[in-house]
Amino acid sequence: MATDDDNDALLSTRVQFLDDTDIFSSSNFPEPTRPPTYTIPRYSPLSECLAGIHRLLMAPHRLSDCTLQLSHTKAYLDLEASIDEQAEEFENFGKDRRHSIILRTKLSVRVHACIEKLYNSKGRDLRRALFSLKQIFQDDEELVHEFVKRDGLTCLVKVGSEADQNYQNYILRALGQIMIYVDGMNGVAEHIETLQWLYSLLSSKFRLVTKTALKLLVVFVEFSDENCSKFLAATRRIDEDRGHKMFYNIMRVLDEQDGIDSELLVFAMTLINKTLYGIPDQDTFYDVTDALDMQNMEKIETRYREKRGVENKAELIEQFNIFDMSIEQEDGESSPSASIMMRERRKSDFNRMSLRKRSSMANIYAPIRELNELYLELKNELIC
Length: 384
What we know:
Layout: H1 4-8, E1 10-17, E2 37-41, H2 47-57, E3 66-70, E4 101-105, H3 107-120, H4 123-139, H5 141-149, H6 152-161, H7 165-180, H8 182-189, H9 192-200, H10 207-223, H11 225-241, H12 248-254, H13 262-278, H14 282-294, H15 297-306, H16 313-331, H17 336-353, H18 361-364, H19 366-374, H20 376-379
Parallel strand pairs: 1-4
Antiparallel strand pairs: 1-2, 3-4
Helix pairs in contact: 3-5, 3-6, 4-5, 4-7, 5-8, 6-7, 7-8, 7-10, 9-11, 10-11, 10-13, 10-19, 11-13, 12-13, 13-16, 13-17, 16-17
């Protein structure tokens, strides 16, 4: 006869599997719909019951590729630890009868398969894979961390550097989803090649590519002052290697004469302003503004202030006003302590005058959410 102690030492739970053996065609619906029950010892490593769960479910996975995940929190379980050692993860487990433990493919295995597919696919197969990336990252935050950890960003940049504009748009779409997560944002900050690739796309002849890259860079520099410094370092290296002055690609966007998309102008000036108020020292601030001045910033500003029929002109003029105010404030101070104060005032003025108030993380990521609208047209290009 079982005692209370015996019952406390066991957990009887529903178990299911998720068929994600192919990361690009995985199901989001656990199977079977009527899950069987499996009893797990609370004080033994979960690895000891993995084979039994796999056998009970008749799952299509290779046993060596399997891990376990909680259905309600999406948390991956440590197979080398017991339920008791992961008590926090199981705190509310079982309170809803729909809760289950899901058998699925390890993150490392899925990421490896994803990267291999991107490197080795061409044509329609590559297009399908790239198009699916955003949804894959959106469905599993932990996968983003693993993807960044295992050089996934290097893969995206390499594929993107060799791809046409449609493929680049798919990659930018996925990169925007990666940057929504803190691990993803930090991964981009530490991967200078991604920042250089985004900056290089500002010279693309395709509007959608340029606009999306600008939006992602705005989100990046707005995230933290440290990101501003990293963005500057990345762009400086590209411009110096090509014999250009700083922010050459951004100034090309601003100085385009024919058929300009006014939204591009606003985003370009916003990127400049957000970068300026994140610069930590006065010397760097003047390095940037002097470079802009030598690339005819004043003439460009005058042209758009006087030009009629420019869409979004009020927003553009507001960004020019922020830029002028930043320089005026910096010119009025020279001591290090005063420079810090002016930097804080620049930031305050920018926040006050910005089109989007930076009062919450949701607003920081607003440009990323807007990308969904840009990609509606891309869905029609995907041949099912």
